[in-house]
Amino acid sequence: MAKKHFLIPAWLIRKLPVLRKIGWMLETVVVKSLVGLLRAMSPERAARLANFMFRNLKSVLPFARKVRGNLTVAFPDKNKQEIEKLTRNVCGNLGNAVAELVFAERIWAERDQRIEFVTEGAIDLASYRGRPMVMINAHMGAWQIAGFIAAKYKLRMTFIYAPEENPYLRDFVFRLRSALPGQFISRDGCMRGLTRELRQGNAIGLTSDTRLDSGDTLSFFGVPAPTNTTAARLALRHNCEFFPVRAERLPNMRFRITLCRAIRPSDPDAPAAEQARQMTQELLDLFETWISASPDHWMCFGRRWPHEAYPGGSPAVKNRQQRQ
């Protein structure tokens, strides 16, 4: 979440700043009403309803253009109709993500029936208790509950979160997140907190598939992309494991959470910056395989590549030009 606005395009807010507060108030009513409606249902029915609603709201969701643009760059061989279908399904799966957050506490309480935990390579995760580690995932599938695998093995886990821009929703959404088993620290100025947790022998969880303009340029779907290497640098600095985690949706509000094999530097004698680049590139390659297998489960709501990577410029710029 943590977008400035969900229902009103950013370009319209820039033209009419008075709409900012109105938009926030409207979004607050919509979000709280939706959460109340979903809570009145079973988790299975709530997920189906939320998927249906968001899938059919695609045309009015401001970020749908970014989704369409990202999918076009990632899958240049797909035609316009295929991209539109994927975009619609991505929006629908955002509804699933909302339902998963609403029912996070119940999903955890019923984990024996709802979650299949998998560790690749016979990893004994319980043996990492009291040892630092970095767990990393993408905005892919049921990413919000990926950290359940740490709680399953009684590891202390700290997550980074981005506070909502909407002041009327900020505390409400944080309370929803707080149902997840773990600690939370704000994205703003988080490095000190992350370092403290690792020094104390705890696990940290990061979601790292978004663009960072000041990051290193690495290949993502064969296209150069500015990428955040912080997670790998933290793992190297604290001499701890760097574990990718994948959370997949299964039928009937069930899930599979997989702790993948640790990513380690291929050349431990290389400079730390180069090791971090190599580890992050390996992570991006893994993300590519996940996304290619289930592209409609990739929550790609922000521009991932530089403007020039998109046909006709960035999706947002192209859209504004068409309106003028």
How much helix, percentage-wise, in residues? 40-55%
Give unreliable regions as ranges.
316-324
**Basic shape:** globular
Order of helices and strands: HHHHHHHEEHEHEHEEEHEEHH
Report the span from N to C terminus: 29 Å
Q: Give the mean pLDDT.
A: 91
How many domains would you count in the coordinates? 1
Largest sheet: 7 strands, mixed
Radius of gyration: 20 Å
Individual helix count: 13
Q: Count every beta strand, where a strand is a DSSP E run of 2 or more residues.
A: 9
Strand fraction: 15-25%
Oligomer: single chain
Structural class: alpha/beta
Cross-sheet strand order for the largest sheet: 1-9-8-2-5-3-4
Task: Give a verbal description of the structure.
The structure is a single chain. By secondary structure, the protein is of the alpha/beta class. It has one domain. Helix content is about 45%, strand content about 15%. The protein is built from 13 helices and 9 strands. It has helices at about 10-15, 20-40, 45-55, 65-75, 80-100, 105-110, 110-115, 150, 170-175, 190-200, 230-235, 270-295, 315-324, and strands at about 115-120, 135, 155-160, 185, 205, 210-220, 225, 240-250, 255-260. The strands form 2 sheets. The protein has a 7-stranded mixed beta sheet with strand order 1-9-8-2-5-3-4. A two-stranded antiparallel sheet has the order 6-7. Helix 3 packs antiparallel against helix 5 and helix 11 packs across helix 12 (about 270-295). The radius of gyration is 20 Å and the shape is globular. The protein starts with 9 loop residues before the first helix and ends with a helix.
